[in-house]
Amino acid sequence: MNVFENWDQWKNFLGDRLNQAKQQGMPQETINKLAEQVGDYLAAQVDPKNEQERVLADLWSVASQEEQQAIANVMVKLVQNNGTQS
User: What predicted TM-score, i.e. pTM, was given to this entire model?
Assistant: First the structure.
């Protein structure tokens, strides 16, 4: 199963990447900027595979740049306690 098809697997995947970045000393500001870039990529290139991803894609598509930054920051907070390495 693709991680994009299951919301919990997707959150765990993102949580693992977040934990790796923090362990390597990446600053929170850089993590937040990368999260925004990932959001831009997903919105442009990936078809949502579940209801949660569809909601995020719809919100992203109508959000201003500042709102997209806020969505990305909230996603970082959401997944920071997820992942197999937490």
Answer: 0.80
